[in-house]
Amino acid sequence: MSDEVGCEPRFPGGRYCSEDRFECKNHLCVNHNDLCDGTDDCGDGSDEEDEVCRNFQCDKVHKYQCGNFKCIPRYYVCNGDDNCGDGSDENNMTLCANRPSHCPNLFSDFKCANGNCVKRDKICNLQDDCGDNTDERGCHEEGKCEDEIDGTRGGCFHRCNNLPGGGYLCLCDKGYVVNPENPKKCDDVDECASFGHNCSQICTNFNGTYACSCREGFELSDQFSGVCKAVKGGDPKLVFTTGSEIHAQVIETTNNRREFDVIKNESRIEGIDYNPSSMMIYWVDSQENAVKRSLIPGSGGHTEAMIGFGQLVTPSTDTNTVPTDIATDWLTNNIYWTEMTVRTSLQGARRKKRSVVSVGSIYVAKDDGRYKISLIRTGLERPTSVAVDPQHGLMYWADAGNNPKIETAWMDGTKRRTIVTTNIGHPEALTIDFAQDHMIYWVDSKLNTIEIMDHDGRNRHTILQSAPSVRKPVSLDVFEANMFWVNADGSVVRQDKFGRGVPVTLARNLNNPKSVKVLHQYRYNTTLKNPCLDMHCSHMCVLVAAGRPVCKCPDGQRFINPQQTNCDAGTSN
Fold it and tell me: Quick check: helix, strand or coil at residue 124?
């Protein structure tokens, strides 16, 4: 290059390069096709600068432009690798969901109904190699497809394949499965009844197929991916804690995540939730042993507020008791929170053996802390998370004690049931996807898993397990077609809530993150009517099964009328 140093421009306008080439800042010339491809072709990085790439259009025929404006070959898109560096080549479900998946070897592999691939010599060997037994259904030890039965090949309702060792196999078209009683018959598969469909909200089964649709305020992004996007309510915001602070990030694109402060100068914030009606955010502080709240900055009639101000809702009455998580019932404006009391005692003949016992509790109160009621006081060791479903009158909580479990009860504390006790290590957080038929998502920080299940703990499925992006997860939330989780190492991550695509890290190196929530008008269903408005309870009204209202009295008080609506405690405004 020394022979080029100090040379005069050779092209009009003082240019060193011809019009069909890009001129680097060091005056080297590179092909336009080499711009913004992640490689420093100039040698000074000027062909990869943000300002250049933002205004550069990739070759649309042969290349794909990422969300960060990088250009990659089109054959890299939807290949399972994050070639863009921001996940946009793998998380564009409009592109990726429409690409058919095939087994590695079309001639020697058999594709099971669940999508798994097994070798064809595994078919009809009396072993469930597929995992759903579809490689063993439809087997016929004798005969061949050329034998016409009832006017069809081998009598099969759909398709027929001869087996290498003799006999034949009846196969069903996509959306059907072989009847377990009749190996020639094909039955419709209800894709909506199990994990595996791609509908982020509503799934409707049809004969041989299914269709996706969205709730009010959302629209399908395309006809293939099943992704519902909010079209009202503005941009969703991700709210997360960092020790003594609460921050928020506007979720727009990979290059425009505006951040702002919500709360500062607190102590040790553990769990957060918010009321979408009042736009009040609530949190529990394990150092101050208190439940607190604040208006969300910029919301409602306080658009000029730049930062929230913490207001004490209820303090702990025991210095050995710390609050661990909180949930809001946005219909009745009640708050639910969990507490853990740690007690130490000396045991043994000489009382030298120290024993530590944890006892958990769940409480409910008005959103300003009045009329506190204990709902769960026994059989709970280390409550880590609580979530409420006011539409169904149910609450859920996780217990990471010596016998880890996930439990549920009516929101008055009655009808308590355990729904998860197996394959569970240290359940840290759970959340309810109200738009997706109230499915429950939860994380386990010991097993490094993110799982999904229905309200009874059935239809349980592991979405991610020991993935590089799941490193001791401590909190999660879901919205639209995405799930968001916080790892103990200080990262906030987003991925498709069915595990499709690749994870994208939204924040790194956070200080002691404990909780994450998606803030949006349609995260919770605010169109529901408050059933307590017609109850006229003197103190507290809570919801039970099917969202029915019942009255409750504060701890230590009782009802004084047959209708059980009035308590003998004083009231406060």
Answer: coil
CB 406 within 8 A of CB 395: no
Question: From CA 501, how far away is CA 494, in angstroms rounded?
Answer: 10
Task: Look at strands 334-347 and 373-376 and give their pairing.
Answer: unpaired
How far apart are alpha carbons 394 and 336 in whole angstroms?
Answer: 12
Strand, coil or helix: 164: coil
Specify whether the CB–CB gap between 265 and 244 falls below 8 A. Answer: yes
Instruction: Report how far residue 434's alpha carbon sits from residue 427's, in angstroms, rounded to the nearest whole number.
Output: 21
Q: Cα separation of 140 and 60, whole Å?
A: 51
Burial bucket for residue 171 (CB in 10 Å: 0-12, 13-18, 19+): buried
Residues 44 and 131 in one domain: no
User: What pLDDT band is residue 1 in, cutting at 50, 70 and 90?
Assistant: very low
Question: How many domains does the chain fold into?
Answer: 4
Which residues have a Cβ under 8 Å from the Cβ of 33 and sit 6 or more positions away?
Answer: 59
Residue 253: its pLDDT value, please? 54
**One domain for residues 421 and 299:** yes
Q: Say how far apart CA 169 and CA 204 lie, in whole Å.
A: 30
Secondary structure of 475-490 in HEC code, one letter for each residue: EEEEECCEEEEEECCC
Is 529 inside a domain boundary?
no
Nearest to 427 by CA among 409, 440, 446, 408: 446
If one counts every other C-beta atom within 10 angstroms of the C-beta of residue 359, the result is 19
Structure-block tokens of residue 189: 């598969």
Place of tokens 């609530």: 282
Is the pLDDT confidence value at 410 over 90?
yes
Sign of the four-CA dihedral 31, 37, 41, 47: positive
pTM recorded for the entire structure: 0.88
Residues 418 and 452 in one domain: yes
- Look over the chain and give the mean of its residue pLDDT values, rounded to a whole number: 90
